[in-house]
Amino acid sequence: NAFDERWTLCTEHMAVNSFAVRYADVVFLVDGSQNMGASGFQQIRNFIFRIVSQLDVSVDKFRIGLGQFGAKARTEFLLNTYQNIPEMINYIRSGRSFAFRGGQALRTGSAIDYLLRIFFTESAGSRKKEGVPQIAIIITSASSQDDVIVPARALRNHGVKVISIGVRNSELTEMKKIAFLPNFPFVFQISAFSALVQLSDRISTAMKTIVRNEFLHRELKAPEVCQSASVADIVFLVDESGSIGTVNFQLIRSFLYNFIDILEVSPDYVHIGLAQYSNSPVAEFYLNRYQNKSDVLDHIQSMTYRGGGRNTETALNFVRQTYFTDRSGSRARIGIPQLLIVITSGESEDKMGKAAATLRRSGVIMFALGIQNANETELRHIASYPSRSYISKIDDYIQLSAIERNFQKKVCSEIGKQTAVVSERTAILEQGCIETEEADIFFLIDGSGSIQPDNFQDMKMFMKEVAKTFRIGANKVRIGVVQFGSAPQTEFDMTQYSTNTELEMAMNQIVQIGGGTETGRALTYMKTLFSEAAKTRSYGVRRFLIIITDGQSEDSVEIPAEELRQEGIVNYAIGAGEADPAELLLIGGFQEKVFYVTSLDFLIDLKNSIVREICSVEACSKLDTVDIIFLIDGSGSINVEDFAKMKMFMNSIVNKTSIGADKVQVGAIQFGSYPRPEFQLNTHSTKPDLQQAIYNIQQLGGGTQTGRALTFTADYFDGARGGRPNIAQYLIVITDGEAQDEVLAPAKALRDKGITVFAIGVFNANNTQLLEIGGSPDKVHYVENFDDLDDPEKQIFWEICSVPNDCARTDVGDIVFVIDGSGSIQQRDFESMKRFMVALVNNSDVAPDKVRFGAVVYGTTPVVQFQLNQYKTKSDVREAIYGMQREGGSTFTALALKEAKGLLTTEEGGPRSDRVAQFLIVITDGKATDSVNVPDTSKDIRDEGINIFAVGVAEANEEELQTIVGPTGNYFYVQNFETLKSITGDISKVISDIVFLVDGSESIEAEDFRQMKAFMKKIVNAFEIAPNKVQIGLAQFSTLFRKEFFLKDFSERTSLIAEIEGIVQMNQGSNIGFALTNVNSLFTREAGSRKADGVPQFLLLITDGRSNDEVVAPANALRDENINIFALGIGKADINQLLQITASQDTKYFVETSKNIEKITPRIVRKICKDMPSKGMCQTLCDIVLHKRRYANAHCCCCM
């Protein structure tokens, strides 16, 4: 009808102007009970009349609704009932139409629920989906006879701003519970009806203020996450087909304009490209066309609409071939994230094929925004994995403005994840999987005729990436591959290849066999293969089968899959395309072992999840003693269902841990306007009690005082509140909104106490605040809603399990532990010594031809626990250590050393023909009873070429420790047994040229500069310094550049370290680009560089801020000279600029403060070692080199 046509036209007009006019949907809900009284009700009529008269009411401006309630609520008129003000005013002023109902009952809570269900809906005229503010004015005269808290919270969660007005006997406390916020301009209470006249003006002003502030907030404030997402190549592919129409095309232009306007478009930061498509695609502009934002926005405003058909597949191919290329300005080659945003409004007229998958394979992250008739299957076909994170769907173009902010946050969050988080979490994954050294893994891959060639390559790529995570070898992780179609075919078994290189070559050569899909037959075949593989090991290891298929099996899978599980084989079922989810569950057996993707190119996205599952048993076996506190947001903005999901999140982590007073402790604190402790760390020592306590938590409500809660929480990690400050402690914060107070200082105070803080924000959370809470991007997790908490739960638990280990691996050696088990050693201390030994075993490559271990426990007499050749696997050595018992008696250390020497020098498991390095590791807590014999015995052992390390605890005599180890100084002293685990390191010989480029600008505090020098010295200590080994150069910069010393200047460590210690900070500004240009002079032959001889060249930049000059060109010039650039950012360093400098996620590092540099040092050393050729085997087990300056004469093994 005419009204509907006018309604639609006006709505479109309003949206086209992109909120140029500031209006709202307003509903009055009036108390009509006898408490109000007939005369009072007449005053309310006049009050509403005065307010409405001051508003510009029409279908495309202010819309008004009216309801009355007492025992029940009733509709007077809806938001779409009246299209002009005269008719509406007639109704309001009419005692017959808007009649006083009376009655004793007053059920305000029920009426609020009615308001939400009936009035604030699209069918009633609500324009919420169009982004129009929603306002309710609730007028009451007495306390409600039912609960108002839950329905009022639901109304707020729906986005309705509630103004609560109380007259007569109204209760202020209840009014505040109803209101959007418990203060002005949302709460008004008057005692006399005569005051309503004056109040009407105030209410009108308050409404207009609310509306104006909401629109200003939307327009002027870009999402916080977009303020840091400043480096990316973003291409828009926009549907301009004939079904869209001119008006809707203007809405798309407005959406694009507003989206791009919040980004930092410039030559070195965000680049924008745009193409439109209908029957055929049209290039509007490429990534390298415009260098500044204003030019991009001008072009968008001038875009023309052409109409036509909709060939999405053709358009995707066009973008792939012409936009994401070096020629068109793509910076993928230097590590800049590549994004494609596809906006489409209907089903494609050409068949969707390989274009989207090909784009994803090339590293393009793909978002799909579907409007009106967009096909959801096609959107999933386009979007990256998981599709729920990369798809947005709306019913009409006028909703574009309503989703604008959330879509911006979604895209910017992804950019931030790519630039600052992905490489960090990959490193954590690799760190955790170091513990998984012994396993048998078979891949069972579908090679049937339904698999396309590209998808078969996807499977091979997936297998290669999984294999790269592990150390491959006959006594390590072994991998085999079976392909199946109508029948299974062994490509290679587990014993065939013993190196990663051989495996990769073999996988590359696999040829697809075609045929049917007989998965059941293939599973039966695998049982025999696993059985045969087990015979080739002398001990049992964990066994895994990873099945990949794209279709339903032609035979039954249930029985053969179950038989494999009965044999202890863990099945992972990965399905794609037409695979049957029910069948996958039969294969996997458990939902967590089943994975489904729409396309096999998503396999690479599953890699981390699969690997994390495989490695979790070993990695999390170390999780014996930690403190974890959950700090959960219980404010009024969170609904009941979402609060329950937070409790499920907590329970999920609890279920994976060993709860106990001497194991994992868990506490919980809830916060709203104030914090409330639910239970302390030491309250519950059993898992059932803890789970019940979590179940019993009741939501607090109120505001969001996150900073206050963080301050409150700090004390709960202390001993007085059940905490254990000497062990690892974690705080997990979950919130869905912006904190109403300051969070930076209290969060930093927690981190300064050594507490690791994780921040989880649901999409309305403030990104800047989350980063302030977590301290670094890798500790921040964004989710769009509470249903997505599963992913951060798994990642956070994995990070807790995978605490970085500072010691790399010992490759070859014979090691004998000499352990004090005398009467002075308490049982708990003896257990600490055993944990220390196990930690060293875990960091060694245990095998008959690699590292072997023996052990002697002594008191009055020494007792051999096991010989060097007695145990051949790491698990057997660990089991033997855990079975050791104290001997008691006195401390006859010299006698024990003599016995231990026998293990290394006799033929019973002693020397090997290759004369590998030999070690004795002595651990004692007191002076030797036979101290007179210690000097000669120790010297005799050292004269045999045996290296002695001594660890003294508590009452141990340091002079005696020095005597035992001799001139090497390889002794360590700790005050108690719990700190034994802190002393691990490793040694190797490698060759390279390393230049430090250190920021000496005025923003660097003196203490931070000292920490930078300490970091450089630790890096130096990690390598053997010599003209034919590692050379070090150093330059400092601020506004200027200063060479401190060349690569050729120092040929040994001591004088090099002294020179580093003596450098003086320059101060002034920070011109990193200028410094990068000048540092090339240190990589010349004249400066000592061996680049021409093929020696790897490394530049390690250390900075705390953003450069005042351009960095991209000078960094590119260094890379063109084959110089590997590493960048360590501290504090306010610009992560995006670090990425521009390194052109690699893997060589960019960030720490919150200079004090945290120590934590990241081993990662940097390992990465440098990984990128250079090793020139020798690791020579000794572990040293304190990365932690104790006085042992600077040792070397660090970083060869992996």
UniProtKB/TrEMBL annotation:
It is found in: Secreted, Extracellular space, Extracellular matrix. It holds the Pfam family VWA. Its main location: secreted. Residues 25-203, 233-411, 440-614, 627-800, 814-987, 993-1168 form the VWFA domain. CDD domains: vWA_collagen. GO terms for biological process: cell adhesion. One of its GO terms (cellular component) is collagen trimer. Gene3D superfamilies: von Willebrand factor, type A domain (3.40.50.410). Keywords: Cell adhesion, Collagen, Extracellular matrix, Glycoprotein, Repeat, Secreted, Signal. The keyword 4Fe-4S does not apply. This is Collagen type VI alpha 6 chain.
